[in-house]
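Supplementary notes (optional reading)

For those who missed the lab, this is the record we used. Protein: Neutral amino acid transporter 9. Length: 559 residues.
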Amino acid sequence: MEEDTKPLLVPVGGDESNYGIMNIQFNPEDFKCKRPFHVEPTNIVSVNDDMQRVTDEASAMNKRIHYYSRLASPADRALIAPDHVLPAPDEIYVYSPLGTAFKVDNCTDGYGKNSSIVTIFMIWNTMMGTSILSIPWGIKQAGFTSGIILILLMGILTLYCCYRVVESRKMIPLIDTSNWEFPDVCKYYFGSFGQWSSLLFSMVSLVGAMVVYWVLMSNFLFNTGKFIYNFVHDINVTDIVPGTNGSNKVICPSAASSHPPQKRSVMFSSGNNTGFELFEEWWDKSQTVPFYLVAILLPLLNLKSPSFFAKFNVLGTVSVVYLVFLVTVKAARLGIHLEYNWFTKNDFFVPEFRILFPQLTGVLTLAFFIHNCVITLLQNNRNQENNVRDLSIAYFLVGLTYLYVGVIIFASFPSPPLSKECIEQNFLDNFPSDDIMSFVARIFLLFQMMTVYPLLGYLARVQLLRQFFGNAYPSVFHVLVLNLAIVGAGVAMARFYPNIGGIIRYSGATCGLAFVFVYPSLIYVISLHRAGQLTWPALIIHIFIILLGLANLIAQFLL
């Protein structure tokens, strides 16, 4: 009965590091197992759906918990319930507002059930996206040496800001923030402005990603259809595009702008070109293919719940692994082509340092962007004390993947005969449509993006319509109007501005300004100021971070 001697009331300003919800004190290792829930004596359902009642002892303990919670106002955080009134781990039930409670048969430490390995993998898989296709182009824009340095520095900076996001809830006193997301923290510090601005920048990131997906899906669908048609009809089309010779051909599409599209060599096995001109007319990369996607994806966007597509998330991992494999094989066959020119440019190589480096930082801001959902991902970590370590490892692996793909593609790009300036914003465009390995990569990415796109649309719908109508699906009309606007933006970009590097860096720098640079730094400074712990070095460092984010955004429109 040693715990019976513990006082019910503690002095204000005591150690509150282990306070839980309802102002009940827990040991950190017991936080999950001893969290009290409201349990009715009836309608208790276990995980095997067997109807059962709670024991009299558990019911009495539950009443005592409610008694202690009402002895003082929750705001003063003074009341601590002694351990002996808490239910045993085998008598804990999770209460549902629907009137049922599910028994926790195997209570584990921490908030979630995922191991550190699974958590690291989830963060890596979530962060890896379409930006990986533009990393080699970004290195070319910044210069080889400065590109590597920027990837390392941006990885460290975005990791620190992400750490500040994770810690932001813990710095709010007297309030249970266990179920808060980062927009809730922004609302706490900045009121309605924080709520609506976080919604705006979150929508920018979502819609920007959906536009990039539409442009890439149009690209992949066009090249895939072209490959299949030519293969089925045994047609050999050689466009007048500068490139290398041999089986490992690399092309320079950006240098072909001066060549009229009719300047090509077409060979038909059957000796006639029946249907080929018609196919060319109806299968155009910017004129027709973006509209074909509307017929496929618009019905999927209007589904109330796209949970079916979440089952295909593994395709993202398969696609990235295959891209790494493709890059490795291509580099082994092409060899390394590097020449160091620190500040001067020649016909085949770019300087090591270039004034266009902010274009890479814009891409990297989105490439390392996970700040709006990192709290949710880490909440599922079984060992909460490992959150910072697991987040750091995940960022290290993401940065390593970006470095590997970017450096290998840049270094193996055949210069001469081609210039490094030929590296495209989507490096797969540097391989012809009849390249087998690139064809497989495009198939993987196309199917993956077509399954992820409805999920992104669902997230955009939930965030926007729920704010205005209180319902993620207020009516078919409202959902259709929103989806038509999103799809229209994708079609317009694929039609008039198929520049994925530009779209990525603009959306990355815009949403990154808020979620990566400004809000985490401001919230940390404000919380330190309110606690009387703000120092000049901390203030200067975080103001500098905010200025870096602002300069990153402005530079995207100047270069």
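If you only remember one thing from this example: Residues 328 and 408 are 8 Å apart (CA to CA).
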